[in-house]
């Protein structure tokens, strides 16, 4: 691509060079898998009988090997509003497959937990490692080797990364990800945020808070703020794994159904061929595009963990230094709540991904020459899908319809992508600056050290934090307790900031796609568990968190201190079942995965 930004070109080439041995090993494996994949006509009749016994409507077609057979891996359940629409998808997808001479079977299901439901609860400690579990469940689903292509039904936080990590180990097959879309907009995000802060301050009660939350999360579909779930869908577009423009089309519409049909028809066309296999589509440039999309839209900080893990599953090595350098070159083109006032429905109506991708390509800020599931190059993803005259069509997105939400690369909201790498004597951490006012990029204050978020909330209620303070919440990393999100701290810290105090958070835990206006150094590595730097801190230590200089440090002399003791591991809510994954997990910057470590990836 002749006009590609030199920083993006340099970082991409560095990733390619660094990844050469592991990428070659991955591609060699995929070629061997393609070569040894059994032809169904050569498989024993007993095996085939087991595979086809339940497919009564398609049994004759499968028996006669008339066309490609698509495996559906679904993360359906009713607990996730985003995944509730998937309940009816398999039956419809089987019909769509028959329309083009193919068949489809549900290959398997994967777990899918809702971080919104487990937020602040013990179950959240299972969340990150559910990603490894989902990847393994995907492997189980596809291990039957009865499929010529695969469709993946998943949207939310750890689910899409887990599906992709598992799918990439079957990268010799074509694959398409099929979203179901966001719920309609509820009350404004500003109203929701105000009620949460009033509840944290004791100004309103639980009844008012519950009514506010129900007015926001109210129907089937993805939550409408730009958190990890919607960042997932954005990245699937940037990597070319969706039917173009399908990320943010609402459930239950004719357009949504037409896009789902198009996905199955396209997958049937590709299935059984060596064109556009998943291993070919997901290369170094596609991974860089995912990072670029994350930066340009102000997406979820969780992807500082998920992108390295997904990349490793394809033999690609990327780290936070790469992501921070890309951030220096990629401007912020979108402000979507919690980085702005509008939600993803308003983002989509303003031009959405079609506009973002068009601006990035025209400015030389994304790899346009990637191989997508739709066609060669990312150009098709500049368009917005529409349903007109009973036909699925795409219209080129030429301009932003709301410049408070979407701006051109020539006049962005800010010149960088808002993902900073902080380093210093407290380790390495991520800082999402896109939602933080510049006057709060640097916070120097005395520390107050906690080991649970409940203790932080109690101190807040008691007025103990009413001062300039750096709140340290440690022993929240992958090996300590599964690295739960600490999103529940946002209202309390926001109240302190609104009172005029200079406040920052430092943690080896996660803050999620809902990271907001309070400066936060998150994913600190090494984590406190096992003697990391955060385990040496004490109340009163002066700490500097600075996005401007990329600094995370303390002026305290840590050399003579003894680490705080590692916490006792808690049991209950199934946490003990995941202890194996915690023990063997690597650091957040590598993806915080036990599965990838055990696989030698």
TrEMBL record:
Residue ranges constituting the Dihydroxy-acid/6-phosphogluconate dehydratase C-terminal domain according to the UniProt record: 405-592
Residue ranges annotated for the Dihydroxy-acid/6-phosphogluconate dehydratase N-terminal domain, each copy included: 68-378
Known cofactor(s): [4Fe-4S] cluster
EC number: 4.2.1.12
Biological processes annotated in GO: D-gluconate metabolic process; Entner-Doudoroff pathway through 6-phosphogluconate
Top-rank lineage group of the source organism: Bacteria
Pathway where this protein functions: Carbohydrate metabolism; Entner-Doudoroff pathway
The family this protein is said to belong to: Belongs to the IlvD/Edd family.
Designated name of the protein: Phosphogluconate dehydratase
């Amino acid at each position: 691509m002749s006009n590609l930004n030199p920083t993006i070109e340099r970082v991409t080439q560095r990733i390619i060079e660094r990844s050469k041995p592991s990428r070659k090993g991955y591609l060699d494996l995929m070629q061997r898998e393609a070569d040894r994949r059994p032809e169904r006509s050569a498989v024993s009749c007993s095996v085939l009988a087991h595979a086809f016994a339940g497919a009564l409507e398609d049994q004759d077609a499968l028996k006669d090997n008339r066309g490609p057979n698509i495996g559906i891996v679904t993360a359906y359940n009713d607990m996730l509003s985003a995944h509730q629409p998937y309940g009816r998808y398999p039956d419809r997808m089987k019909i769509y497959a028959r329309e083009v001479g193919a068949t489809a079977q549900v290959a398997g299901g994967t777990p899918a937990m809702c971080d919104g439901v487990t937020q602040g609860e013990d179950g959240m400690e299972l969340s990150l490692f559910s990603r490894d579990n989902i990847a393994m469940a995907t492997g189980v689903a596809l291990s039957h080797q009865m499929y010529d292509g695969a469709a993946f039904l998943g949207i939310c936080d750890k689910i899409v990364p887990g599906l992709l990590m598992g799918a990439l180990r079957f990268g010799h097959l074509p694959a398409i990800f099929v979203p179901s879309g966001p719920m309609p907009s509820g009350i404004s995000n500003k109203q929701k945020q105000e009620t949460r802060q009033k509840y944290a301050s004791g100004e309103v009660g639980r009844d008012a808070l519950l009514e506010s939350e129900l007015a926001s999360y109210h129907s089937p579909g993805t939550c409408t703020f730009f958190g990890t779930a919607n960042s997932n869908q954005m990245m699937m577009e940037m990597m070319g794994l969706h039917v173009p423009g399908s990320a943010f089309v609402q459930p239950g519409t004719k357009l949504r159904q037409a896009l789902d049909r198009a996905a199955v028809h396209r997958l049937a066309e590709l299935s059984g061929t060596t064109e556009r296999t998943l291993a070919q589509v997901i290369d170094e440039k596609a991974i860089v595009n995912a990072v670029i999309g994350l930066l340009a839209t102000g997406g979820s900080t969780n992807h500082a963990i998920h992108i390295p893990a997904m990349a490793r599953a394809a033999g690609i090595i990327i780290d936070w230094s790469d992501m921070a350098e890309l951030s220096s070159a990629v401007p912020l083109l979108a402000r979507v709540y919690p980085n702005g006032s509008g939600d993803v429905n308003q983002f989509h109506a303003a031009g959405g991904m079609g506009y973002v991708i068009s601006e990035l390509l025209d400015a030389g800020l994304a790899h346009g020459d990637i191989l997508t599931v739709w066609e060669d190059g990312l150009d098709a993803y500049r368009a917005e899908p529409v349903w007109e005259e009973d036909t699925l069509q795409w219209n080129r997105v030429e301009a932003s319809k709301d410049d408070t939400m979407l701006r051109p690369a020539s006049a962005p909201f800010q010149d960088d992508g808002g993902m900073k790498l902080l380093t210093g004597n407290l380790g390495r951490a991520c800082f999402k600056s896109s939602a933080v006012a510049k006057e709060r990029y640097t916070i120097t204050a005395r520390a107050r050290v906690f080991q649970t978020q409940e203790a932080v909330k109690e101190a807040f209620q008691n007025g103990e934090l009413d001062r300039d303070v750096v709140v340290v919440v440690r022993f929240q990393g992958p090996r300590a307790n599964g690295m739960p999100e600490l999103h529940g701290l946002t209202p309390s810290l926001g109240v302190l900031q609104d009172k005029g105090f200079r406040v920052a958070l430092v943690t080896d835990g996660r803050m999620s796609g809902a990271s907001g206006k309070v400066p936060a150094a998150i994913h600190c590595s090494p984590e406190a568990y096992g003697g990391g730097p955060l385990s040496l801190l004490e109340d009163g230590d002066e700490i500097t968190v600075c996005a401007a200089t990329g600094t995370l440090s303390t002026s305290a002399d840590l050399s003579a201190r003894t680490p705080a003791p590692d916490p006792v591991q808690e049991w209950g809510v199934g946490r003990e079942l995941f202890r194996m994954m915690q023990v063997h997990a690597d650091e957040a910057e590598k993806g915080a995965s036990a599965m990838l470590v055990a696989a030698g990836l």
